[in-house]
């Protein structure tokens, strides 16, 4: 088994979605509900399969913080009105193979948008570091 | 008491399923009986703990069947008491293990079910060992039980599948409240006592010969120490001796297999008082045997290291030429051989590549230190 982080971005190096999708506040309430229900159901599916480790959503507002030397208060920057990349949230799953992690991410990316069409947003998949094996020779 | 309960768990489960109980229901009943034992035994230890557990587990099984029947609101017609059957079979362990390691299960499910049903660990302990929530592990185990439920339960399955699962339990290297390496050794011992397959003994020997080095494998701060740099005075010589004896017994049967060959390689390393005294020629011969048995690219990669030690780094690099460079640790092996060949700049570059590709943090840190060491000596040499 291996753990993977499935990251949902607000924006990233890739555009939010392959399709030309309007911002969510311009969807109908039913479309918004269908999208969120899909995400919750996906989490339940991970639980049913015995793959679930964690799921969190992040507030879009954040601050960058940096050490500025002994005795000085930390430097802060942001929040930013426009940013290239914000992490919206994640799942952590413990799955049998990388193929299964990719399948799960692709399914997450098929979440419905306007008109019930899959929005096809990019989901970033990052493997966790594991423990070293005992037998290496 | 915990050790006793762990030993009795598979025996009691074996007795119930022998008598015809459904595997999943019997497993639940045994778990409930264990809870009762933990509650009552400290006050009064039964004269015959196993008989006590069988009795309580049988009662739990009946209770569960009654509850199920009541739920369905129909008369209880099923036979409550499983018919008395043979109480002990030496191959119960293999029977149970082969059910838990059924080929229809994914490796992770088989590992979880084995640790719970045969190892007698709690779901919480297994969850903690694999760093997942308890509910996730509970779900994984119950899905696994559903997968293997039903079917006849009197023919032992594939020993090879069982050995693969036990190898995984040993090799995953997770450390939590429960030491999974020790669990794997305990279960493999039980299996070795119940079967005369030399590969079972081979796997037990392999585990013992590696486990003997445990104290030397990490520094106190958790850094990985490669075999060549380990403090061999920390090795458990009694465990090495046992491992070698088990291996010799297996090899004498003249039915060589992968686990015996791997154990032979481990034994040669364990036998060397210093890394320099390692009999690399013999190690290489065993890698040739192993490669003939398994044709595994990982074996071919490790064989290249042995070639490098036995016949020199250039020969090692030539052996490495034929190995798929996409393999994990390929760059680390190439770096090692280049350094031995005196090509320190190339070695440093390859160590850095290997570090970036490492799939675990301990190995990544080790490889980064190797790259840094070579880069630092290169810049101090040129200064």
In short:
The complex is a heterodimer of chains A (137) and B (383). By secondary structure, chain A is α+β, with helices and mostly antiparallel strands.
Tell me what you see in this structure:
The complex is a heterodimer of chains A (137) and B (383). With 137 residues, chain A is an alpha+beta fold. In chain A, 23% of the residues lie in helices and 27% in strands. Chain A is built from two helices and six strands. Chain A has helices at 29-48, 98-109; strands at residues 2-11, 52-57, 64-66, 75-77, 86-95, 123-127. In chain A, the strands form two sheets. In chain A, strands 2-5-1-6 form a four-stranded antiparallel β-sheet, covered by helices on one side. In chain A, strands 3-4 form a two-stranded antiparallel ribbon. In chain A, a hairpin with an 8-residue loop joins strand 3 (64-66) and strand 4. The model of chain A has no long low-confidence stretch (mean pLDDT 88). Chain B has 383 residues and is mainly alpha-helical. In chain B, 67% of the residues lie in helices and 0% in strands. Chain B contains 18 helices and no strands. Mean pLDDT of chain B is 89; it is low at 74-88. The chains are: A alpha+beta (137), B mainly alpha (383). The A-B interface holds A 1, 3, 47-53, 94, 96, 127, 129-137 and B 106-109, 130-133, 135-137, 139-141, 143, 170-175, 181, 206, 210-211, 217, 224, 227, 262, 265-266, 269, 302, 305, 329, 358-364.
């Amino acid at each position: 088994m291996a753990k993977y982080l499935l990251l949902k971005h607000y924006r990233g190096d890739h555009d939010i979605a392959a399709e030309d999708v309007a911002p969510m506040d311009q969807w109908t309430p039913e479309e918004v509900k269908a999208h969120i229900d899909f995400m919750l159901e996906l989490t339940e599916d991970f639980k049913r399969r015995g793959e679930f480790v964690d799921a969190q959503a992040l507030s879009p507002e954040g601050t960058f913080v940096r050490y500025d030397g002994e005795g000085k208060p930390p430097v802060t920057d942001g929040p930013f009105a426009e940013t290239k990349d914000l992490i919206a949230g994640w799942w952590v799953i413990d799955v049998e193979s990388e193929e299964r992690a990719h399948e799960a991410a692709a399914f997450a990316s098929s979440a419905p948008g306007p008109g019930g069409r899959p929005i096809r947003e990019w989901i970033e998949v990052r493997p966790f570091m594991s423990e070293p094996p005992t037998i290496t020779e | 008491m915990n050790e006793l309960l762990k030993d009795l768990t598979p025996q009691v489960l074996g007795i119930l399923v022998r008598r015809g109980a459904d595997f999943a229901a019997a497993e639940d009943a045994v778990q409930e009986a264990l809870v009762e034992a933990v509650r009552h035994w400290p006050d009064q230890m039964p004269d015959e703990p196993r008989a006590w557990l069988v009795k309580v587990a049988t009662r739990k099984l009946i209770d569960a069947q009654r509850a199920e029947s009541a739920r369905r609101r129909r008369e209880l017609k099923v036979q409550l008491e499983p018919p008395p059957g043979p109480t002990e079979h030496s191959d119960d362990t293999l029977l149970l293990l082969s059910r838990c390691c059924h080929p229809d299960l994914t490796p992770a499910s088989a590992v979880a079910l084995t640790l719970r049903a045969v190892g007698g660990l709690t779901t919480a302990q297994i969850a903690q060992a694999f760093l997942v929530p308890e509910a996730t592990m509970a779900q994984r185990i119950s899905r696994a039980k559903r997968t293997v439920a039903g079917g006849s339960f009197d023919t032992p399955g594939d020993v090879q599948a069982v050995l693969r699962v036990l190898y995984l339990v040993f090799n995953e290297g997770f450390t939590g409240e429960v030491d999974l390496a020790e669990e794997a050794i305990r279960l493999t011992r039980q299996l070795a006592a119940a079967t005369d397959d030399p590969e079972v003994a081979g796997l037990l020997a392999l585990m013992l010969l590696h486990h003997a080095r445990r104290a030397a494998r990490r520094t106190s701060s958790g850094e990985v120490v490669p075999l060549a740099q380990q403090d061999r005075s920390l090795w458990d010589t009694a465990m090495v001796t046992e491992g070698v004896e088990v291996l010799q017994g297996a090899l004498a049967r003249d039915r060589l297999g992968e686990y015996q060959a791997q154990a032979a390689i481990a034994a040669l390393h364990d036998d060397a008082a210093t890394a320099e005294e390692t009999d690399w020629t013999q190690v290489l011969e065993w890698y040739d045997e192993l490669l003939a048995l398994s044709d595994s690219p990982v074996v071919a990669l490790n064989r290249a290291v042995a070639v490098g030690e036995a016949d020199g780094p250039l020969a090692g690099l030539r052996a490495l030429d034929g190995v798929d460079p996409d393999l994990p640790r390929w760059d680390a092996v190439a770096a090692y051989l280049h350094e031995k060949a005196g090509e320190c700049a190339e070695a440093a570059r390859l160590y850095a590549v290997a570090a970036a590709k490492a799939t675990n943090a301990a190995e990544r840190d080790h490889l980064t230190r190797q790259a840094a060491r070579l880069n630092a000596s290169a810049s101090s040499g040129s200064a």
